[in-house]
Amino acid sequence: MKKPPSEEPEERLTVTPPKTWAAGVPAVGHALAYSLDETSVRRAGTTLLIVNQVHGIDCPGCAWADPAPGHRHRNEYCENGAKHINDEATSRRVTADFFRRHPVSELGRRSDLWLNQQGRLTEPMVKRPDADHYEPISWHDALGLLAEELTSLDTPDEAVFYTSGRAGNEAAFVLQLFARAFGTNNLPDCSNMCHESSGFALHETLGTGKGTVGLEDLHHADLILLVGQNPGTNHPRQLSALEQAKLNGGRIIAVNPLPEAGLLRFRNPQKPRGVIGPGTQIADRFLQIRSGGDLALFQGLNRLLLEAEDARPGTVLDHDFIRSSTSGFDEFSAHVRTVDWDDVLTATGLSRREIEEVRDDVLRSERIIVCWAMGVTQHRHAVPTIREIVNFLMLRGNLGRAGAGACPVRGHSNVQGDRTMGIWEQMPDTFLDALQREFGFDPPRAHGLDSVNAIRAMHEGRIKVFLALAGNFVRAAPDSAVTEEAMRRCRLTAHISTKLNRSHTVCGRTALILPTLGRTERDIQSAGEQFVTVENSMSEVHTSNGRLKPASKLLLSEVAILCRLARRTLDEGRTLDGEGRTLDGEADIPWDRFEADYGAIRQCISHVVPGFHDFNRRVVRPGGIRLPNPVNEGVFATPAGKALFTRNGWAAPDVPEGHLVLQTLRSHDQWNTVPYTDDDRYRGIHGSRRVVLVNPEDLAELGLAEGQSVDLVGVWDDTVERRASAFTVVPYPTPRGCAAAYFPETQVLVPLDSVAESSNQPASKAIVVTLEQAEQAEQAEQAEQAEPTEPTEPTEPTEPADTGPGAAPR
User: Fold this and answer.
1) Domains of the chain, each with CATH number or no CATH
2) pLDDT > 70: what percent of the chain?
């Protein structure tokens, strides 16, 4: 067993110029070095040779689509995928002895990097009330303890069941089934914090919450707009698809606040041109937009297209598509013509000429795709922005045909599949009716709590039990201090996890760690060896087959944990709703059969979820199945039966003089909340993550210099101070008035109430901050100590007037 580090790595910041290209031979070297530091040559070789292969292991990293069978490279993975899969396959172990040596209070002071480096969890652990150590507990007792807490609740809505995208479809389906049979729709997930705005906007305008394109569409598009995303770090295999688009004659426009290496040039390490040659220029045009300016950009662009149609009637817009397949064009057209150009240029930071050049690219292109990620979705006006992107696509008929469409790029493997399986607090009645027909019980109909409202409910004492299937909720969620306090107010918190993370150190009165198999490991149940299925960003569903020996004999699969918990909980027969209703015998759910044979779960999925007919047979075919998208059949499941043009009011971040708008971002050596090192070599940051990237002209205006230590102080319309301390200033080519710093260290600055309209998604890309020098921060702290103020948060949980699961978000 490889020995984990016992001490935190020493932080020594060095800064080099940002890279102007991504991948290449260095990426191969970094991937192999990290993999071999985590595990043996044999284990690393096993995972890398079968990751993303037909009947192999689906990479637990991003949700990018695989090429068709027969067209996959033998090394069908990226640098970060290699790191991620071998981070899970690590030979390091976290045993009961580790928890004897490290109290929870100490672990809470450790960094995310150090916690992750300790290795795989190996046996169930419990932290008892008032204890400061986790101690071993048997599976029987652990699940019994959790079941007892659940069945002692006054109402099922006092429990929350959270899910991360790491879970497979089978586990996700079982979890939502258990929660609804238990009696609640409190099913928040990581989509609430990542792409919820995409789902709301696409549902409203197109009648489906998913993207409309496949990998082949990207290869054959004439023009691709990459908006608010960084493929080189967050979904690097997308660069191969973009390279293919360029080779086929397509053009690419990058719209992003930062000049990311992967948006500039790609040196594909699988091709001679990428090893010894110059690689491929990705972006033909780079628009360095101000954070939050995307709505203004597309409104300005749409106005230019309407004016081009005025000048050349019948040659610009797709009138046949608009007439036959859309509704609301006249109202949209009248509104967008009123957009003020001064507002557009101020919000975007671009010149009118730059936007006109994009219009010219559009007019030369027959097939257009817009890709976007969290640079678009994590703003207060994210939903109107995505609606405006849909307006843009519809003007020239770029929906429902090859080489064109909408492409929200999901950032986590199977996060889209979780939602398809019913992990959503607002699933429609059609899905709930199908559950009723299949299992013989009437699921609850009232909408449940999303992630933000779950935090609020926990903080107010309305949630007593929090169960997480994978993920690191405490670090992923906004308003870190509020989130941590909310978790600590629960009676019990439980995490189904593969590795140690910060959420295990922020405990309810009682806390459970339930260790589970990773995606890389063989899953053998009583009916034989099992596989799971996952869905990628292109709505393709395929198998994932673990191959490694489990990290511990005491590990259970996610499905097994959930099925055993469901049996223990639902067999209690307790009255939960105050009306004499008991759970015993209410639903006909074969938990034993589900645990023994995941094919039984898939058989039920085929009866409940549209598009999954004959699931067991179809999914094992090479490449799996592609789920139908009604948009590509010319069907729009909106009230009008057509795609909807929308009028979107003006919105942009309001940044007072002397302030900056801060966006959170991931480093290159990071996956979601977990950094693999303290480096971000593409941006030239080495040895520390507590840096803030600021335009040199802004630094001069603010009286700051390179290398100074500052506190980031959030500005919001309440009296709670949100401060991220001791960040080093790094001059960087950001847009004027904009800054950037790493997630999750800056989640403390994101107010719980700062969310996107409609979707309630945290606005982590639009944090208004001031930068306080160290001496200013010290003076502010002394003044606060000298003049104590009344607490702004209740010291004891209080019951609000509306305690239902569908309570308003604000």
Assistant:
1) 14-88 (no CATH), 120-193+414-613 (3.40.50.740), 196-408 (3.40.228.10), 660-786 (2.40.40.20)
2) 94
